[in-house]
Design a protein that fits this description.
By secondary structure, this protein is α/β, with parallel strands linked by helices. It has seven helices and six strands. A six-stranded mixed beta sheet has the order 2-3-1-4-5-6, with helices on both faces. The protein starts with a helix and ends with a helix. The structure holds guanosine-5'-diphosphate and magnesium ion (MG).
Protein backbone atom coordinates (compact mmCIF):
# COMPACT_ATOMS: atom_id res chain seq x y z
CA UNK A 1 0.00 0.00 0.00
CA UNK A 2 0.96 3.57 -0.54
CA UNK A 3 1.87 5.44 2.65
CA UNK A 4 1.09 8.72 0.91
CA UNK A 5 -2.56 7.71 0.79
CA UNK A 6 -2.64 6.01 4.17
CA UNK A 7 -1.78 9.14 6.09
CA UNK A 8 -5.06 10.90 5.23
CA UNK A 9 -8.75 9.97 5.46
CA UNK A 10 -9.83 11.89 2.37
CA UNK A 11 -8.11 13.21 -0.72
CA UNK A 12 -9.99 16.06 -2.41
CA UNK A 13 -9.16 17.66 -5.73
CA UNK A 14 -10.10 21.30 -6.24
CA UNK A 15 -9.30 23.78 -9.00
CA UNK A 16 -8.52 27.46 -9.32
CA UNK A 17 -10.18 29.23 -12.22
CA UNK A 18 -10.72 32.78 -13.44
CA UNK A 19 -9.12 35.23 -15.86
CA UNK A 20 -5.40 35.68 -16.22
CA UNK A 21 -3.62 37.78 -13.56
CA UNK A 22 -6.50 37.88 -11.06
CA UNK A 23 -4.18 36.30 -8.47
CA UNK A 24 -4.93 32.57 -8.64
CA UNK A 25 -1.32 31.42 -8.33
CA UNK A 26 -0.62 33.82 -5.49
CA UNK A 27 -3.72 32.72 -3.59
CA UNK A 28 -2.45 29.16 -3.89
CA UNK A 29 1.14 29.96 -2.91
CA UNK A 30 -0.19 31.95 0.05
CA UNK A 31 -2.36 29.03 1.16
CA UNK A 32 0.15 26.26 0.51
CA UNK A 33 3.44 27.92 1.46
CA UNK A 34 2.53 31.34 2.88
CA UNK A 35 4.34 33.05 0.02
CA UNK A 36 3.42 36.02 -2.16
CA UNK A 37 5.18 37.09 -5.37
CA UNK A 38 5.01 40.60 -6.76
CA UNK A 39 5.94 39.50 -10.24
CA UNK A 40 3.57 37.41 -12.29
CA UNK A 41 4.92 34.40 -14.15
CA UNK A 42 1.80 33.19 -15.87
CA UNK A 43 3.39 30.41 -17.87
CA UNK A 44 5.42 28.88 -15.06
CA UNK A 45 2.53 27.67 -12.96
CA UNK A 46 2.89 24.70 -10.70
CA UNK A 47 0.56 21.91 -11.58
CA UNK A 48 -0.88 21.60 -8.11
CA UNK A 49 -0.12 22.00 -4.43
CA UNK A 50 -1.17 19.97 -1.42
CA UNK A 51 -2.15 20.92 2.07
CA UNK A 52 -3.37 18.74 4.90
CA UNK A 53 -6.37 20.01 6.81
CA UNK A 54 -7.74 18.57 10.01
CA UNK A 55 -11.57 18.53 10.20
CA UNK A 56 -12.75 17.05 13.47
CA UNK A 57 -11.09 13.65 13.72
CA UNK A 58 -10.50 13.38 9.96
CA UNK A 59 -7.38 14.38 8.08
CA UNK A 60 -8.06 15.75 4.63
CA UNK A 61 -5.44 16.13 1.96
CA UNK A 62 -6.50 18.93 -0.35
CA UNK A 63 -4.95 18.80 -3.80
CA UNK A 64 -5.42 22.21 -5.40
CA UNK A 65 -4.80 22.56 -9.11
CA UNK A 66 -3.53 25.76 -10.68
CA UNK A 67 -3.38 26.59 -14.35
CA UNK A 68 -0.08 27.14 -16.12
CA UNK A 69 -1.53 30.17 -17.86
CA UNK A 70 -3.84 28.29 -20.24
CA UNK A 71 -6.69 30.63 -19.30
CA UNK A 72 -5.04 33.33 -21.40
CA UNK A 73 -5.70 31.25 -24.48
CA UNK A 74 -9.09 29.93 -23.34
CA UNK A 75 -7.47 26.52 -23.45
CA UNK A 76 -8.40 24.95 -20.14
CA UNK A 77 -9.41 21.41 -20.96
CA UNK A 78 -11.91 19.06 -19.39
CA UNK A 79 -9.09 17.06 -17.78
CA UNK A 80 -8.32 20.04 -15.56
CA UNK A 81 -11.81 19.75 -14.05
CA UNK A 82 -11.96 15.95 -13.95
CA UNK A 83 -12.62 14.63 -10.47
CA UNK A 84 -12.64 18.11 -8.91
CA UNK A 85 -15.07 18.47 -6.02
CA UNK A 86 -14.42 22.16 -5.45
CA UNK A 87 -13.51 25.33 -7.31
CA UNK A 88 -12.23 28.73 -6.32
CA UNK A 89 -13.56 31.09 -8.98
CA UNK A 90 -11.49 34.26 -8.82
CA UNK A 91 -11.94 37.77 -10.22
CA UNK A 92 -9.92 40.93 -9.66
CA UNK A 93 -11.82 43.67 -7.81
CA UNK A 94 -9.70 46.27 -9.66
CA UNK A 95 -10.57 45.02 -13.17
CA UNK A 96 -14.22 45.04 -14.10
CA UNK A 97 -13.71 42.81 -17.14
CA UNK A 98 -12.64 39.92 -14.91
CA UNK A 99 -15.98 40.22 -13.09
CA UNK A 100 -17.95 40.39 -16.34
CA UNK A 101 -16.22 37.19 -17.49
CA UNK A 102 -17.49 35.21 -14.48
CA UNK A 103 -20.60 34.20 -16.47
CA UNK A 104 -18.34 32.53 -18.98
CA UNK A 105 -16.46 30.69 -16.25
CA UNK A 106 -19.68 29.53 -14.63
CA UNK A 107 -20.85 28.28 -17.99
CA UNK A 108 -17.63 26.30 -18.40
CA UNK A 109 -17.97 24.88 -14.88
CA UNK A 110 -21.48 23.69 -15.64
CA UNK A 111 -20.28 22.08 -18.82
CA UNK A 112 -17.27 20.23 -17.41
CA UNK A 113 -17.63 19.98 -13.65
CA UNK A 114 -19.77 17.84 -11.42
CA UNK A 115 -23.14 19.48 -10.63
CA UNK A 116 -22.64 19.35 -6.85
CA UNK A 117 -19.20 20.95 -6.98
CA UNK A 118 -18.60 23.41 -4.13
CA UNK A 119 -17.81 26.80 -5.69
CA UNK A 120 -16.39 29.73 -3.76
CA UNK A 121 -16.38 33.07 -5.57
CA UNK A 122 -13.43 35.29 -4.64
CA UNK A 123 -12.98 38.98 -5.32
CA UNK A 124 -9.21 39.26 -4.96
CA UNK A 125 -6.87 42.27 -4.48
CA UNK A 126 -9.11 43.85 -1.84
CA UNK A 127 -5.98 45.68 -0.61
CA UNK A 128 -6.05 47.94 -3.71
CA UNK A 129 -9.02 49.98 -2.51
CA UNK A 130 -7.97 53.11 -4.46
CA UNK A 131 -8.36 51.29 -7.79
CA UNK A 132 -11.44 49.26 -7.02
CA UNK A 133 -13.85 48.75 -9.95
CA UNK A 134 -16.23 46.16 -8.46
CA UNK A 135 -18.13 46.74 -5.20
CA UNK A 136 -18.41 44.08 -2.57
CA UNK A 137 -22.22 44.20 -3.00
CA UNK A 138 -21.90 43.20 -6.65
CA UNK A 139 -19.87 40.14 -5.72
CA UNK A 140 -22.36 39.25 -3.00
CA UNK A 141 -25.38 39.56 -5.24
CA UNK A 142 -23.85 37.48 -8.04
CA UNK A 143 -22.95 34.81 -5.49
CA UNK A 144 -26.51 34.82 -4.19
CA UNK A 145 -27.97 34.54 -7.70
CA UNK A 146 -25.66 31.69 -8.64
CA UNK A 147 -25.74 29.96 -5.25
CA UNK A 148 -22.02 30.32 -4.54
CA UNK A 149 -20.07 31.07 -1.39
CA UNK A 150 -18.38 34.47 -1.57
CA UNK A 151 -15.64 36.50 0.00
CA UNK A 152 -13.16 39.19 -0.88
CA UNK A 153 -9.50 38.28 -0.46
CA UNK A 154 -6.04 39.74 -0.59
CA UNK A 155 -3.29 37.29 -1.40
CA UNK A 156 -0.87 40.16 -0.91
CA UNK A 157 -1.95 41.03 2.63
CA UNK A 158 -3.09 37.53 3.49
CA UNK A 159 -6.71 38.50 4.09
CA UNK A 160 -9.34 35.73 3.95
CA UNK A 161 -7.07 33.37 2.02
CA UNK A 162 -7.08 30.63 4.65
CA UNK A 163 -10.82 31.20 5.18
CA UNK A 164 -11.58 30.85 1.47
CA UNK A 165 -9.79 27.53 1.06
CA UNK A 166 -11.22 26.20 4.33
CA UNK A 167 -14.74 27.15 3.30
CA UNK A 168 -14.31 25.18 0.10
CA UNK A 169 -12.73 22.16 1.77
CA UNK A 170 -15.32 22.24 4.56
CA UNK A 171 -18.12 22.36 2.01
CA UNK A 172 -16.71 19.36 0.17
CA UNK A 173 -16.25 17.50 3.44
CA UNK A 174 -19.91 18.04 4.34
CA UNK A 175 -21.02 16.51 1.05
CA UNK A 176 -18.47 13.69 1.02
CA UNK A 177 -18.66 12.53 4.63
P1 LIG B 1 -2.95 34.44 -12.02
O1 LIG B 1 -2.60 34.70 -13.45
O2 LIG B 1 -4.43 34.48 -11.81
O3 LIG B 1 -2.33 33.20 -11.47
O4 LIG B 1 -2.38 35.68 -11.16
P2 LIG B 1 -1.01 35.80 -10.33
O5 LIG B 1 -1.14 35.09 -9.03
O6 LIG B 1 0.13 35.45 -11.20
O7 LIG B 1 -1.01 37.37 -9.99
C1 LIG B 1 -1.02 38.35 -11.00
C2 LIG B 1 -0.45 39.64 -10.47
O8 LIG B 1 -1.32 40.18 -9.45
C3 LIG B 1 0.93 39.50 -9.80
O9 LIG B 1 1.68 40.64 -10.13
C4 LIG B 1 0.63 39.45 -8.33
O10 LIG B 1 1.69 39.95 -7.56
C5 LIG B 1 -0.61 40.35 -8.24
N1 LIG B 1 -1.51 39.98 -7.14
C6 LIG B 1 -2.03 38.76 -6.89
N2 LIG B 1 -2.83 38.80 -5.80
C7 LIG B 1 -2.81 40.08 -5.35
C8 LIG B 1 -3.44 40.76 -4.24
O11 LIG B 1 -4.20 40.20 -3.44
N3 LIG B 1 -3.17 42.10 -4.13
C9 LIG B 1 -2.34 42.76 -4.99
N4 LIG B 1 -2.14 44.06 -4.76
N5 LIG B 1 -1.75 42.15 -6.03
C10 LIG B 1 -1.97 40.83 -6.20
MG1 LIG C 1 -1.24 31.72 -12.49
Amino acid sequence: ANSFQEECDYLFKAVLIGDSAVGKSNLLSRFARNEFHLDSKPTIGVEFAYRNIQMGDKLIKAQIWDTAGQERFKAITSSYYRGALGALLVYDTTRRATFENLKKWLHELREFASPDMVIVLLGNKSDLSHSREVNVEEGQSLAQEENLFFMETSARENVNVEEAFLQMVGGIFEIAS
